[in-house]
Amino acid sequence: MSGPQPLLEKLRVPAARGESQRLEAALAAARVFVILSSLVVHSLDTQPAPRSETSGWILLITYLAQSIAILILLRGREVGPRFSRVVHGLDMFWALVLTSTIQSASHPFFLFFVFVVFAAAYRWGLRAALWSAAAAALLLLMEKLLISARPQDFGSLVAGGFDLQGVLIPAAYLVVTGFLLGYLAGVEKELRAESTQAKAMDRALVARELHDGAIQALIGMEVQVDVLRRQAADQDAPMAGELARIQDLLRQEVLNLRELMQQMKPLDLSPQHLLDFLAESVDRFWRETGITASFVSELREVNLPPRVCQELARIAQEALVNVRKHSGARNVVVRFGAPNGSWKLVIDDDGRGFDFAGRYSQAELDAARKGPVIIKERVRSVGGELTIESATGRGARLEITLPRSHAGKN
Questions:
Q1: Are 374 and 318 in contact (CB under 8 A)?
Q2: Number of C-beta neighbours around residue 90 at 10 A
Q3: Residue extents of the structural domains in the chain
Q4: Helices 274-289 and 306-322: crossing angle, nearest 10°?
Q5: How high is the mean pLDDT of the chain?
Q6: Is the pLDDT of residue 72 over 70?
Q7: Is residue 8 pLDDT above 70, yes or no?
Q8: Region 221-230: what's the mean pLDDT?
Q9: What is the pTM of this model?
Q10: Would you say 113 and 121 are in contact if contact means Cβ atoms under 8 Å apart?
Q11: What CA–CA distances, in Å, run from 44 to 31, 60, 73, 106, 281?
């Protein structure tokens, strides 16, 4: 049986780690739009209060400049929970300053309080939206009391001229809006989480079916072909050679399916486990392919956002798959370190190299339409830089560099 408290607990759904950055970017764009709209409305106000005509423009332009700076900042680096809290406090501050400074009946600045509640709902869920709405309502009441308590307005306050209803109605609007937005945001995040979980369960089920079904069947066929090849070795050399080729194809398909299984598994990787994951992936690659592989890192800990750790892990996996399928290498080394103030992941092999020679930056690779597309996209998604050095017949070297500014942005 569910009651009010279980409902509140159920809807306390903060933004997931992966979507926090996208959410902040969306809120930053919405903030700029709201301010620009307010500037338009303020310019159409034909009867502004005398003291607000200049100060209103200054405040709005200052708030707009701050919001544009936040939008630009979000494009260049990852942000954490502290950033969200600071920006939320600034939004509340600006809403209070604008509504208290610009005393015009037609001003739209009450909407800034609504934006604050909206942002709280989609950042942290129902409870945060209600707290923000209550705080905004209290600030509106205090603002009205302070304005009415000025010497020039004190007479009307004593005479009962304080418009309590004019404060309570907007405050009630804010609380109701906070509940509705918080409820809708919570339900939307819950549905999205359920959808993500269902997809992960489906992928895990497919991976188990591959392991217990197709992979085991292929391994069994490969063993049978090996027996036939050994029997034919002394009697029919051409047949033995053909069976060896089929056996190798079966072995490669087993490896392909195992790699597919690894890529299908949900990867929720924390910074504390990145080094162990890379070492384990390289060791498994050596065992399964026979290509000598080693992992080298002098780091003892990694201070990167979980999303960046996950992308680095996927990049390493994809690079190893490419080494096995295309390079013909006998040796591969994966290195991860933090030289010269940046994070660097390096995959170095002694295979045949790419279809180009030289050292190419990511911009040059894009211009020439060369290099592994998936790896380039993953590197770009975390704000990194890919460099490929290739010598035909003498191997290739992939360098993924990330700025140190990624550190600590959880």
A1: yes
A2: 16
A3: 4-198, 267-410
A4: 10
A5: 80
A6: yes
A7: no
A8: 84
A9: 0.55
A10: no
A11: 20, 14, 32, 9, 63
